[in-house]
Amino acid sequence: MDPTLKTKTISALKQEIPHLSPRLKTVAKYIVDNPSDFGLDPIRETARKCGVSTYTLVRMAERMGFAGYDELREPFRHALVSSTELVQRLDWVDNLRDDGRLGQVQAEASVNTMAIVRRSLERQSPKVMEQAANLLLNADNVYLTAVRASYALAYYFHYVGRMALPSLQLIPRHMNSAIDELNHAGPGDVMIAITFTPYSRETIEACKFAKNKGVKLIMLSDSDVISSDFTADVTLVASLISTHHFGCYTGAMAILENLLALLVDLGGDAARQRIKSYEDLRKDNNAYWIAQKKH
Fold this sequence. Notes:
This protein is of the alpha/beta class. It has helices spanning about 5-15, 20-35, 35-40, 45-50, 55-65, 70-85, 90-95, 100-120, 125-135, 150-165, 180, 200-210, 250-285; strands at about 140-145, 170, 190-195, 215-220, 235. The termini are far apart.
C-alpha cells in the first residue's frame, strides 16, 4: 500500500469540507482530527463518536471516490500497524477493572487519558513547536484568550508562562471583551487562542479581529479545520476524545507544558532569572504555608 495514501486522503478531506453537507462535514472533520481512532474503531463505534449513522460513513467513502467504507479506512489502519508501538498491559489498570463497576469506569478513563496525551504529543512537530515559541518570544505583546472550560488552561499557562515571557497578557481582563483588549494590537503582536468543539463564538470573533489587525495567531484546538474566515499562523492540535460527556483536556495541557519548556529553554538566562525573582518574591512575602514545628 502507498504509505502516503493516508496523508493524501486527509488533504483531500480538508479541501472537500467546505462543499459537504452538514453530516458529511462532521464525518470529514472527525477523520481529519482523529486519524488514529478512525483507523482503529469499527464502523459502529466511529458512527457513535461522530453522532451520525453508519450509512453516512458509507456515503462519505463514496463521496471521496472509494468503493466502500473499508477502503476509506484501510490506509489509516495500515498507518497504525506500521507505526504504533506495542503497549504493555498495566497491572494497576487491570486491578482497577477487577474492582467493580466504578473501578472499570476509572480504568477506562485512565487508559483514555494516557492515550490522549500520547496522541496529542505525537502530533506536534518540533519545527512547528519551535516556530510557535519563537513567535511568542519575538512579539511586542502576547495576548492569550479563552473562555469557559478552556479558560482554566489559559489561566495556568499565563500564571506560569509570564515568568518566562513578560509580554504575556491574559484577556479579557475585568469585564471587557477580548476584542476590547485587542483594540491597539498590531502586526508586531501575537495572540494565543484556546478553543475546542463546540467553538466559542467570543474566541472565534477575537481570532478574526486579531488577524484583520495583522496580529500573528497561534491556536490550540482539537482541529486545524475551524473557520473559513481566518487561518492561524500556527495550529497546535490536541485530541479531546473522552469516556464521558465532556472533552478530555489532558492532551491540550501536555502540549502547553511542552511549549512552556521551549519558552524557558529559548529564553535562556534572562528567563531563568525572572523565574528566580518570582520565587524569591514569594518566599520573602510568606506566600507558601510552612508547618510550624511542635516544641
